[in-house]
Every structure is written in structure tokens, then in C-alpha cells.
Amino acid sequence: MIAYHFGRGRARLTPYFFILPGILLYVIIALGPSLATAVFSFTDATGIRGAPINWIGFENYREFLLLGQAARDNFGALWRTLLFSFFVTTIQFSLGLFVAMLVNQGLKGTNFFRTLYFMPVILGAVIQGLIWSLFLYPLGGPMARLLEFFGTSSEFLGGAPAEAFAWVIVVQIWANMGTTMIIFLAGLQTIPTEMYEAAEIDGATSWQVFKNVTWPLLTPSVNTNLLLNIIGSLQAWQLFLVLIGYRNGTQVLGYMIFAQGFGQTSGSTSSAFRQGYAAAASIILFILVLFIGSTTQVILNRRERRIIG
Amino acid sequence: MSKKYRYMIVLFMVLTLILGACSPKTADEQEQPAQAEDVTLRVLVHQNPPMVEFMEAFNQKFEAANPGVTVDMSVVNANDLSTVTQTRLTANDVDVVDMFGFANGAQPYMKNVEPPNWQTLIEAGYLMDLTDLAFIKNYDEAALKDAGSYNGKVYSVNLGRVSYSGIYYNKDMFTANNVTVPTTWDELVAACETFAEADIPCMTAGGKDGWPIFVGAYGLTGSIYPDQAALVEGLWTGTIKWNDAKSMEMWDRMKIYAQNMMESGASGVGGDAAPGRFASGAVAMFPGGTWYASAIEASEPAFDWGYIPFPGSNDPEDNKYLFGKYDQGWVIAANTPNKDVAIKYLEAFSEPANYQEFANAVGFIPTQATATLNTKIGQEVAPYLANFRVGLEQYWVAPKGVGQYANPWASYFQPFGTFDDAQELADKVQADLQSGLDALQ
Amino acid sequence: MKAAIKVHKPIKWGRVGSYAVLIIFAIIYANPLLILINTSLKTLPDFMKNATSIASSFNFKNFIDAWTKANFPRYLTNSLIYTVSATLVFVITAMFVAFPISRRYVKGANIILSMFVVALFLPPALIPQFQLMLALGLYNNPIGYILLFTINPIGMVILVNYIKTIPKELDEAAALDGCGYLKFVTAILFPLIRPAIATVAVLHAIGIWNELILPTIYLTNKDYYPITRGMIVFQGVYGSNWPTLAAAVLIMTLPMLLIFLLMQRYIISGLTQGAVKG
User: Of B118, B214, B432, which is closest to A270 when you measure between CB atoms?
Assistant: First the structure.
């Protein structure tokens, strides 16, 4: 049992009292609607109040996972989602850590660098997409001119699906490294300078300092960043929408869900409302994310207990 | 916590409380009947700068002619219009709504398909029945029937047609290179070859956005299958396949269109950059919809261009159709508390003089018989108006489970997609469609 | 204040090496951003002709257009009110959730934590949330809109993990000194976790500031529009007025940039050092 020092009896209930607003807000604003989504997924709801709703059990799930070529395409999207998440997480995490440590040295001008690396986060997805669409404009954009200098050319986002996909990975990392960086920065503040000084006195090399002092003491922010990175990249789709649009061979699950729920797949703007089906598709993505996220969380918790106790 | 923080928190809570207290009453609270004075008419439209500009002027006129009425018009992105229409109708927070022409209805031969959203809204009782109102007679029969009716009743007045199957061409460049305006496929191929020899790219389109490429080829599809409603039925019943001989003709030509006619680098041109590129004289032709006309004119007012149907067939008779869709229309919320004002609003809008001004401003092909096409694009399409047909996209409803290639899209070809062989692509397209048809058994 | 910030030397890099890498990253980051600025300085016809060429003149008209046409003053105020209120409410309530969870002072802390972590994975629930807000009478209401942003699972995870770095012994010591729960959290814990609070506040504020789909649905009264709604005047159907849009975006990001610059002090503050010693 965890020792509580701030009071006994009635006073022991104080934490409960203060935790209530946060939990209530969460239940009403997030949990409630998501539960409703789960329920909708078993119906053929259109999302319009007053339209008939019928319980259809697992029919939506069957359609998404098993029906025809569409289901096989969905698994293609699933695979792409995992690929995307893997590359984005590993690269963004490492770069974020690396840059955070660089910036943490208190060198002159770090304020500027820090702010510059964080700017994309401030701008938001749509603007990030606009900037990179222009940057990667094949007919004379900066990147195109750079490649010309080296004697090659490319269609970038409009070219082969694999290349377009790779560029979205690049932009995703560019856009979000700033967040990873500041979380690590905050974490680096908790490491007392005395530890570094002691290690220096002991004659440790930079790598040893990192391995034995920095890395273990950064465990909470490592955990935070890993979790956020993985989850975020599994769910990401906005950059795909802005940079590529709906192109076969590039879609990830999040985008498929959005497109199918809002009828963006056939190019027509007056398709059906399919709230129930979209709900089922998002629950499937949720289960995937839940599985990977929980596994990650469990592994990280165990590691944390080993290191920090 | 320090005094400073406490002060800030209190200040902002007070601010938000004030804001909250000033929120307008919901429609439910406005149970007392709206008096003839003091009505706020809420109108929802999608973003389309020339249309919005016209509407703002029209709203001012309407307010002046109807004292006590304020028109509160909201603008949203076209992609969000469907969602916001749904939420605002549900919350009874809107009176007049801009809705695209009714399309993609479920046909008797289609099995296990969802009704389109406009039908769901009607069946749930959110759209007002306009059948007996006088002003709908200002609009032509076809528009009312094809774009605004359900089960014999009229729910929407449609305001205009757009065509997406034509080609803009650079008149000066044609004369300079001694090229006549093509009326058959072979002539189009020859024209492009002439331009190629003169080192002029034949065509451009917004390849980066994807859809401009296949929309540009809708004319090609249409000239092979002029009856698009029958095409859809044939695909569903299996009498037409995307890899039968007739379709192969289409695919073979699409390959030439995508690879030989389109300029290399088109896949990098954004949808909104394409008209400017054409107007700057960089290319000879630009397959696209009539909606690009104002962008072309804005970027280069002195530029001389023409518009012809895409000559996809070698029989000129097949190349005289313009395929397109019905664009914006008006509906009235069935539960609006401002019924009389809303009807008056649409009456005023539908007056021939006002409507004519509207059609000129947005460049639609008019749906009122009395309106004439005073714009350049209007004159270009006038000879083909009798042959306007609704396109495939407006009829097609995909069976559930079809793969992502189940469409006649030229953008599947390289460099916009991954296919190089027409037969291979045709087989894939049919297989993807078949997968959904088979699942129906 | 600046003098008090200690110089951390976690890794012995050559100064030159560090600067070299920093500058390389700076180029990678600055170049795309310069495009935004370049776009905002062009005229629309120039942009349509050649989107990526360097602006031939400093065309500040776009900024003036952006300010007036998008009704910046009114909408900027709205955005500020929404962002600041929601962030304040969130940060305060989140602190009182994160602390007992990470210390396990409430029963079922693990379950509650999992619940919040699961919230990270939750699917978007736009329509059900709308129907709930409508039923609660919070549609088209600034308070309802602000309420939507009083939660943030990402922020919660950051806070919980960060609080773990504050030793539990501090709680005991403070309690022995006669400090109550509320006083501890507000007077002792809060200053110690300032870096995390600043981080969370910045990320949360940016999310609210840039949000477009929620105000489109929930705030239909023009008086309530945040600036993201105001910018729609620059977006077309088949193409947008990118130069003016770029100018509007630059104006719009200024407040967030300022907030980040202000908060940076707290994220990097070295003031946390002394207090944590055992």
C-alpha cells in the first residue's frame, strides 16, 4: 500500500475530491462519445438523427475485414501503416533525442535553434503540407533545382507511390521532431549537473556518460516520447491528405477510415453517410493501436521498474 | 498558488462566462412565433469566391427590400459542407442550405447499396417539400427532375450545370501551327504530334491532385459510351465489362492520353496551377471542366481560348456530347422557424434577373430556360447544350467490397499511377469491380 | 535571470561539431519555412505563373488584406480567449489527476492511468460527440466549445511521467512540516514540474489555436469564430488565394510563437535543480 502522508480519515479523501473534475471532463468529452462510436459500429447508423438505425451485429466488421478486394486493400493499408509508424518512430525519436541534447548545452544562440526546430509544430498540418508541396514542386521548386544540380530529377509526391510515401515519412518527421525535442528537453532538466560533474571526475567518455547517466535518468521522457510517437504515427493521416490525396498504393488506415466514412473514395461529393461502417473501421484501428500501445506500455513499465524502481 | 495566477484564472473564467451568457438562444427556445419584423435568416453555402461575392450583394439587396430581416450567411469548405449540413439541420440551426445536385441514387438493379445522403435527409424529414411553390417553375424540367426530386416531389432547385468533359485549346497556337480543331480521335492524336514536333507540350492538367487527370478523360469515356446511365447498369448486370473489346478501345486511348498527350511533369502540377499554366501559353490544350474558365480569364485576360468536347471517338457524331453534373442547388430546412422568409428568399433569388446575374457570376450553364450565357465559356458551350448529359460519376454507386481500382480512371497509368499496359490495367479494373459483384451472391 | 541558468555538459562535443550539426538542421528547417514567407510576399498572378520563384518585390499588401478581410481583430480575440481558458482549465484539472495517479494515492490509479492512455488511441467520434453536446445544450456556445478542449491525453501522459521524477520523500517531508494536500500540489509541486507544465501548455494551446473542423461544426454564430474560421475567405473551391493565405497564416502563428518563446524559459529553467536534493 502506498503511504499517504497528508492526512487521515476524512482528509484521506482529498485526492479523490480533486481528481474528480478531470475525470468527469474526460468521461463526458472523450469516453462517452467513443463508447457511442463503439455501439454505432454494430449498427447501420447514418449519423442523421431521425433516420432509422438497425442493429446489424458484426456486419460492418465483416465488410471491412473480409469483403472482396476492398478488404484486401485494407490489409495493404494496414501493412503500410505499420511500416510508416516504424520508420517515423525510430527516426523521429532518435533525432529528437540527439537534437535535445545538442540544444541543451547552453551554447550561444540555442534559443534560436530551439524555436526554429519547433516552428513546424506551431504551424499545424495544413500549412506543413502547403510548404512541402511547394518545396517539392517538380517543375522548378527548391528541391527539384537541387536535384538538377546533381543531374537527376524526380516527381516527388506525384511520382511512384513508394517515393511519395517516403516523402510523407520525411515530412512527418520534420513536422513533429520539435515535440519530441521539447519533451526530452524538459526531461533533461531533471538530471542534476552534479551527476555529470561526478562522471567527468571519474574520467568517463561521452558515450559512457550517456549510457550510464543520461539515458537511465531520462527514462520517463523516453517512455513518454516512445508511446506518443508510436501512437501518433499509427493514427496519422492528415499529411497524406494534404500532400498526396487519395492515391492507390499510398493509403494508410487512418486515411481509409476517413475516406470511407466521408465518402471521399470515388471522387464524388454526394455519397452516403455511413456512420456505422466508419465507426467499425475506426474501432478496428483502435484495437490495433490498443494492442501495440499496451504492449509498449507494459514493456516500458517493466524496464522503468528495473531502472528506477 | 501565487496571487498572479489566481487573478488570471478568475479573469478568464469571468470572460468566458460573459461570452457564454451572450450565446444566442437555440431554436428550441425561440418557441414564440417569429414576428414579421426581426428575423435572422440563416444561410449555409460552400466556399466559391465568385458565388460568395454575388451572394453577399444579393443578401444586402434582400435585406433592403425586407426590413427587419437579417441574412446571416455562413461559408464552409466544400469538403465540409456535407458534414456541417448534417449537424446544422439536426440542431435546427439553419434555414436555407446550398446542396449539390441530387445524384448517385440507388437504382433498382443495384443490390445492397446505401442511399445517398440527400435521400437519407429527405426520408428523415429534414428537407422541405417545394413541389407546390410557384418559384420552382422558373427552372427547367430537366434540372428539377434530375437534380432536385425524389419520389415525385421536388426538394431542391438546382442552380446550374457544369461540364467536365471538354478541352480548352489555345486558339493562337492552333493557328500558328496550322492545326485545325480536332473532331475525331485520330485528328486529336495528329494535332498532338504536330505540336510535339514544334516542341510544344500538347496538354496539361493538375496531375498532382490526381482527380484532374481522370476527370479530363471523362470525355473520352463518354465518347465510347455516350449513354452513361446504361453504362452503369451494364457494369452492374455484367453485360459491360471494363476489359471487353469496347472498353479496351477506351483504355488504349487513355494510355495515349496519359503518356503521350499529357506533358511530362504534369504529375507535379497542382490543380489550381493548371489553368494559369495553360493561360500562360505553355501548352496547347487543357482538358478540364467549365469551372476553370474564370481562373483562365483572371490569370490572362487577353488570352484567346476555345472549348470543345473531348473527341474520343473516330465517329464525329459520338463526340458532340458534353458530360457533366449538376452543381449547386438550394434546399430549405423542413423545421425552419422562418418558413415564410426562407421561401421569399428563394423567390427573390429565382427571379430571372437575379438568377441571370448569378449564372454570369459563377459561370454555370443555366438551369433557367430564360437565362442566356453571356460569358465566354457560355458561348463556347452553347452549340453543345442540347447534348448535355449527366456523367458516369453522378450515376455510379459501387457495390460493397470493390477494390480500389474499380474505376475508369486514366490516372492509373504511369506516370500518375503504376500501370503501363492497357490490357493489364483493364483486367485489374474489372477484377476489382467483379470482386464486389461476386460478393453480392 | 539568464545568468542563473547553468550550462549543462552532458556530452563532450567539440563546440564546432555541435554548431555544425545545429546549422545543418537549421537549414533543413528554415528552407521550407522560407517558402511560406516567400509565398506571402508574392502577388496572386505571380504565384499562379510560377509558384516557387523568389518574390520579385516585397508585397506587403497581402498582410494588410489578410488582416482586414479575415476580420483578424475580433477573431484573434476569440481564439485567445478559447485557447487561454481551455488551457488553464486543462492544466489545473490535469495536475490534480496526474499527481495522485503517478503516486498511486487513489485506489485504482493504474486503471485510471490506463483509461487516459487508452484515450490516446481512441477513434475520432465527431458525430456522437456532436449529438452529446447538442443534448447538453452546449451547441453554438463558447463555453461548450471551450469544454471540448479541457482534456488532452497527451498532456496527461507527459505530466504523469514527469511527476515520477520528483522523489516521493518530498511528499513525506512536506506533510511532516504540516503541509496539506492542496497546499503541497499548488505551492510545492507546481513550481517543480514547471518544465512539464510549460511543455504541456504549449502543445495544448497550439492544438486549440490551429483547430478548424470543430469550430466549423460547433460555432456557427460569426461572433464566436476563431481565426481559423476567418481564414476561409482565402480558400477557393478549385484553388486558394495562397499568397494571402500564407500571409494570414504568418500573422496567425505570431501569438503562438510568442507563447512558445515565453514558455521556453520554463521548459529550460535550471531553477529546478536545488530543490530536489535529498
Answer: B118
Whether C125 has its CB under 8 Å from any CB of chain B: the answer is: no
Count how many pairs of residues, chain A against chain C, have C-beta atoms within 8 Å.
Answer: 288
Average confidence (pLDDT) over B30-53: 77
Chains that touch B (3 or more CB pairs under 8 A): A, C
Domain of C85? Answer: 70-276
Band of residue B18 on the pLDDT scale cut at 50, 70, 90: low
Q: B38-162+325-379 domain in CATH 3.40.190.10? A: yes
B121, B267, B270 member nearest A159 (Cβ): B267
- In tens, the pLDDT along C174-205 reads 888 888 889 999 999 999 898 899 999 999 99
Q: What is the DSSP string of C216-271?
A: HHH--SGGG--HHHHGGGG--SS---HHHHHHHHHHHHHHHHHHHHHHHHHHT-GG
* Gap from C134 CA to chain B (nearest CA, Å): 7
Which residues on chain A are in Cβ contact (under 8 Å) with B412?
A: 248
Asked if B261 has any chain A CB less than 8 Å from its own CB, the reply is no
Q: By CA distance, what is A141's nearest residue in B?
A: B268
Share in percent of chain B as helix, strand, coil (round to 5): 50, 15, 35
Q: How does pLDDT run across A77-128, given as a tens digit for each residue?
A: 999 999 999 999 999 999 999 999 988 887 888 888 999 999 999 988 888 8
3-class secondary-structure state, position A62: helix
A5 phi/psi in degrees, rounded to 5:
-105, -5
Residues C128, C52 share a domain = no
Cα of B98 to nearest chain C Cα, Å: 14
Residue B165 and residue B287: Cα distance in Å, rounded?
7
Residues C80 and C55 in one domain: no
In chain C, which residues have their Cβ closer than 8 Å to the Cβ of B42? 220
Contact yes or no for C184/A6 (Cβ under 8 A): yes
* Domains of chain B, residue spans: 38-162+325-379, 166-320+398-438
Superfamily of domain A61-307: MetI-like (1.10.3720.10)
Contact (CB<8Å) C117/A227: yes
Instruction: Give the predicted TM-score (pTM) of the model.
Output: 0.86
Distance from CA of A12 to the nearest CA of C (A): 9
Q: Do C221 and B1 touch (CB under 8 A)?
A: no
Q: Are B219 and B165 in contact (CB under 8 A)?
A: yes
For chain A, domain boundaries: 61-307
ipTM score here? 0.85
